[in-house]
Design brief:
Blueprint (H helix, E strand, L loop, with lengths): L1 H17 L1 E3 H8 L24 H5 L5 E8 L2 E7 H9 L5 H13 L1 H4 L8 E2 L4 H8 L17 H14 L1
Antiparallel strand pairs: 1-2, 2-3, 3-4
Helix pairs in contact: 4-5, 4-8
Length: 167
């Protein structure tokens, strides 16, 4: 049990520190120096500031934030993933401040995140050349389809109901 608690503490720290994105973190990434390789490095994953997508600055509200989908060397997946962020709130992986920021983001970006059904699975959908590379041209994952920005009403209705009662 002690080892599990230690592991969960380390995981929570890692997620809250390296996967959290808000306006402050976005501005820090924009000013990152690259090719840092010591324990004192600020840019731990050597994320290239040029990898910031154009849409992210308009999408990020001043009072809001979210957990990004993936961090890998030199690149982050800046898309917003509904399920992961909602589960972070429900499981208390997100701090109370982060939970509020996630809900603030949903409220501020309601038009982009809510389709004709409840919340989209991720935002924005990938398309064009990037879609072909990432999905292997899988027709199930065309823009705004099931796995690429579509809606999963069953999951999302359950999550929204529980989130409203928790936050």
């Amino acid at each position: 049990m002690e080892r599990i608690v230690k592991r969960l503490h380390a995981l929570s720290y890692h997620m809250r520190s390296y996967f959290w994105l808000d306006l402050k973190q976005l501005n820090d990434i924009y000013r990152y120096k690259t090719e840092e390789y010591s324990h004192t490095a600020v840019n731990k994953f050597n994320v290239m500031p040029d990898s910031l997508p154009e849409w992210i600055f308009d999408f990020m509200p001043s009072r809001g934030g979210y957990f990004i989908g993936n961090v890998s060397p030199a690149r982050m997946d800046f898309r917003w993933f509904c399920l992961g962020n909602c589960v972070a709130i429900l499981s208390s992986l997100a701090t109370p401040e982060q939970s509020t920021a996630i809900m603030d983001l949903i409220e501020a970006r309601w038009e982009e995140l809510v389709g004709e059904m409840p919340l989209k699975v991720c935002y924005p959908a990938i398309e064009s050349h990037e879609w072909k590379i990432i999905t292997g041209c899988d027709p199930k994952n065309t823009r705004w389809s099931y796995h690429n920005g579509g809606s999963w009403p069953g999951n999302n209705l359950f999550l929204v109901f529980h989130l409203r009662n928790k936050v």
